[in-house]
């Protein structure tokens, strides 16, 4: 494939939807209501952000993973020589990154070099963190190692980011993205404040007041004596208000605490000297109370009539490990998927090391837990080099309508194995 123009690269990026899915996958009622707010319209250049803010090791690792994963996707399409720098990378208000390629040539090594340069700037920003985060900074500093291949760099960045993100769980990734979004919003606020300071405030001087001419000569009449008892003393109204407020609060407190204090005193008196009130007369019941078993059966019957059936458990179509496949994992890149929408997912496959390169292919099994209907959607194929023990890939799947669904990734080569079900929505759901 020959060199592509910038417009062709943008169309190819829109088709892949690899690193930053354009649609939101949060379920209805999710707490992330800010995804619908104008924070998506905020785009701050990464160069500007690094000049005014210091990233944490986890934030730098997540940005490096997104950016290098984007470049690795171009490399897998045989689009080599995509060059990017911090001026072309923009941090959105949602905590995700977008970029436009600066130029395109035919050198594959230039892609890895430009990606490594951006990663080094992210590491340099995180190294300014306090001493409490130095252990995490030391692990992040391993990203500064030189890599001539962008796929190797992406694999190395993935390992380091998984350590710093506590395993890369959806909750941890969502928390770090919120922090990045807050930095983007704050950086935009600094730019707005600087723009306002560029406009000087005009100060209008008031006109000089007209002062009557004073007589400099001796007075013609006798002036009154200024005696202390001639002055009118002003009352302190605020003191009267505070005293009245304190009296009202004391009365309300006494009205509330007096009955309780009297009850406590009477209970203490009864414990010491005996109660003066006669004991209540106890009357034996006319008929014995109903047995507890009958009540339990009636309650169970009523609950069974009014209850609803819950969704059934999902059995994976293949074992969790088979042959050269040790484990398969699937997770949503944005934290959670929603029924009836497109969802970007990330699939990780752990392998036994091999002496030669081999292809790893997987597909997706979507199951409706209410009526046991299932459908299969195509996935992707990734080439595992010799000695690799793990591969990963990003895919876009269409989630059908349903109140309780499950998605599983099933490997087809080198051996058939299945991941654990990813429930949609999170939790048990209803039918």
Question: What does this protein structure show overall?
Answer:
It is built from 9 helices and 14 strands. The protein is α+β, with helices and mostly antiparallel strands. Among the domains are: 33-193, Transferase(Phosphotransferase), domain 1 (Orthogonal Bundle); 325-424, Immunoglobulin-like (Sandwich). The strands form 4 sheets. Strands 8, 9, 10, 12, 13 and 14 form a 6-stranded antiparallel beta sheet that branches. A 3-stranded antiparallel beta sheet has the order 1-3-4. A 3-stranded antiparallel beta sheet has the order 6-7-11, with no helix packed on it. A hairpin with a 3-residue loop joins strand 12 (405-413) and strand 13. Helix 3 (57-76) packs antiparallel against helix 4 and helix 3 (57-76) packs antiparallel against helix 6 (150-164). The longest helix has 37 residues, at 237-273. The protein is extended.
Task: Provide key terms for this protein.
431 residues, alpha+beta, Transferase(Phosphotransferase), domain 1, Immunoglobulin-like, 6-stranded antiparallel beta sheet, 3-stranded antiparallel beta sheet, 37% helix, 17% strand, extended, transmembrane, transmembrane helix, membrane
Provide a compact summary of the structure:
The chain has 431 residues and is α+β, with helices and mostly antiparallel strands. It is built from nine helices and 14 strands. The protein is 37% helix and 17% strand.
Q: Please estimate the helix content.
A: 25-40%
H/E element sequence: HEHHEEEEHHHHHHEEEEEEEEE
Biggest sheet, open or closed, and with what strands and sense? Answer: 6 strands, antiparallel
Radius of gyration: 36 Å
By CATH reckoning, the class of the domain at 33-193 would read Mainly Alpha
Q: Please give the oligomerization state of what you see.
A: single chain
Q: Would you identify the regions where 5 or more consecutive residues have pLDDT less than 50?
A: 16-38, 203-212, 299-307
Strand content: 15-25%
Shape: extended
Q: Alpha-carbon distance between the termini? A: 50 Å
CATH architecture of the domain at 33-193: Orthogonal Bundle
Structural class: alpha+beta
Compute the number of helices. Answer: 9
Quick one: CATH superfamily of the domain at 33-193?
A: Transferase(Phosphotransferase) domain 1
CATH topology descriptor of the domain at 33-193: Transferase(Phosphotransferase), domain 1
The pLDDT mean sits at 75
Total strand segments:
14
């Amino acid at each position: 494939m020959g060199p592509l123009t910038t417009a062709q690269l943008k169309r190819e990026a829109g088709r892949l939807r690899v690193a930053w899915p354009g649609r939101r996958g949060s379920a209805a009622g999710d707490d992330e209501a800010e995804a619908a707010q104008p924070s998506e319209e905020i785009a701050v250049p990464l160069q500007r952000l690094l000049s005014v803010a210091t990233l944490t090791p986890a934030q730098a690792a997540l940005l490096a993973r997104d950016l290098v994963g984007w470049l690795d996707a171009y490399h897998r399409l045989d689009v080599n020589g995509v060059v990017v720098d911090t001026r072309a990378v923009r941090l959105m208000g949602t905590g995700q990154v977008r970029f436009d390629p600066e130029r395109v040539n035919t050198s594959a090594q230039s892609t890895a070099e430009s990606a490594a340069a951006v990663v080094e700037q992210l590491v340099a920003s995180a190294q300014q963190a306090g001493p409490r985060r130095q252990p995490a900074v030391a692990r992040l500093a391993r990203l500064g190692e030189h890599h001539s291949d962008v796929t190797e760099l992406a694999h190395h960045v993935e390992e380091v980011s998984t350590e710093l993100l506590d395993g890369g769980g959806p909750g941890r990734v969502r928390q770090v993205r919120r922090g990045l979004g807050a930095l983007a919003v704050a950086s935009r606020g600094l730019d707005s404040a600087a723009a306002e300071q560029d406009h000087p405030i005009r100060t209008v001087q008031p006109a000089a007041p007209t002062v009557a001419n004073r007589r400099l000569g001796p007075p013609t009449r006798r002036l009154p004596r200024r005696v202390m008892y001639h002055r009118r003393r002003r009352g302190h109204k605020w003191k009267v208000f505070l005293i009245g407020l304190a009296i009202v609060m004391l009365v309300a407190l006494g009205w509330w605490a007096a009955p309780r204090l009297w009850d406590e005193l009477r209970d203490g008196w009864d414990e010491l000297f005996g109660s003066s009130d006669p004991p209540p007369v106890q009357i034996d019941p006319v008929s014995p109370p109903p047995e507890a078993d009958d009540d339990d059966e009636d309650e169970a019957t009523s609950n069974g009539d009014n209850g609803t059936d819950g969704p059934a458990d999902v059995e994976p179509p293949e074992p969790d490990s088979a042959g050269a496949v040790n484990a398969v994992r699937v997770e949503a890149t944005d934290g959670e998927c929603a029924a009836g929408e497109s969802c970007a997912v990330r699939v990780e496959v752990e392998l036994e090391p091999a002496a030669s390169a081999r292809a790893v292919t997987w597909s997706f099994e979507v199951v409706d837990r209410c009526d046991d209907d299932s459908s299969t959607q195509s996935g992707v194929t990734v080439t595992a080099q010799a000695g690799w023990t793990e591969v990963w890939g990003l895919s876009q799947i269409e989630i059908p309508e349903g109140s309780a669904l499950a998605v599983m990734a099933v490997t087809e080569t080198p051996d058939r194995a299945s991941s654990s079900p990813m429930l949609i929505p999170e939790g048990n759901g209803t039918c």
